[in-house]
């Protein structure tokens, strides 16, 4: 992706690393591969679960080469993966370039179409036989059992009219964020980390055991301080 003849500073510099692999496991085999599409004087390159780049195919001294988006999250509708979102690309006026990659059934893996529906927001169509099966892009089967149960419970609450459509969508969003299918906000990430820490004491037995260990450690430290005449 980087032109070796350019000075180091001028090569493609991503703002952040791509998100972790997520979604249908059978699509993970696309990771590490790149697919290109040439239109007019531009070459577009889509590297699933990594990024999308654009390279101007001219001999101009300032020919453009840049990142149109870095793998971030899925777009989902009605229990179906619809598209991959590549965000946080190169700067474009006051925002970053971003690309939505639509996955459609095709005879071979290929980048079939590129457009720019609005300024610095790109749309790619990627054909692959990996999504031809009617169940290949279902969201529910990709989730761990605990999150599937939460989804089932939300469905029941909605059916019993104990939550609104908005409440149901909020629960689904939280499930998808926890599964890594959607990018959580920084606040949510911090909350998740705190939750992980609190889960260390999910049982009284575990809490008691940890408390005894910490008590021993504190007593040891107090003894050391006392021996050296240090107040605590």
Automatic annotation (TrEMBL):
GO terms for molecular function: transferase activity. Coiled coil: none annotated. Residues 32-134 form the MRH domain. This is GNPTG phosphotransferase. Keywords: Disulfide bond, Signal, Transferase. SUPFAM superfamilies: Mannose 6-phosphate receptor domain. Pfam families: PRKCSH. One of its GO terms (cellular component) is Golgi apparatus. InterPro entries: DMAP1-bd, Gtb1-like, Man6P_isomerase_rcpt-bd_dom_sf, MRH_dom, OS9-like_dom. Residues 139-232 form the DMAP1-binding domain. Gene3D superfamilies: Mannose-6-phosphate receptor binding domain (2.70.130.10). PROSITE patterns: DMAP1_BIND, MRH.
């Amino acid at each position: 992706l980087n032109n070796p003849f350019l000075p180091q500073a001028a090569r493609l510099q991503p703002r952040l690393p791509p998100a972790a692999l997520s979604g249908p496991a059978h699509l993970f085999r696309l990771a590490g591969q790149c697919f290109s599409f040439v239109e007019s004087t531009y070459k577009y390159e889509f590297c699933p679960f990594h990024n999308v780049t654009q390279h101007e195919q001219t001999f101009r001294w300032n020919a453009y080469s840049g990142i149109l988006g870095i793998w971030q999250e899925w777009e989902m509708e009605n229990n179906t993966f619809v598209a991959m979102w590549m965000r946080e690309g190169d700067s474009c006026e006051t925002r970053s370039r971003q690309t939505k990659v639509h996955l459609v059934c095709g005879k071979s893996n290929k980048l079939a179409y590129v457009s720019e529906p609005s300024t610095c927001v790109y749309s790619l169509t990627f054909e692959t036989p990996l999504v031809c099966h009617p169940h290949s892009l279902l969201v529910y089967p990709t989730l761990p059992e605990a999150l599937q149960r939460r989804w089932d419970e939300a469905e029941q609450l909605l059916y019993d009219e104990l939550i609104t459509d908005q409440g149901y969508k909020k629960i689904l969003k939280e499930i998808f964020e926890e599964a890594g299918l959607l990018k959580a906000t920084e606040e949510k990430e911090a909350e998740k980390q705190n939750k992980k820490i609190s889960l260390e004491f999910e049982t009284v037995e575990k809490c008691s055991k940890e408390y005894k260990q910490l008590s021993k450690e504190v007593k040891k430290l107090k003894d050391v301080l006392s021996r050296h005449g240090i107040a605590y």
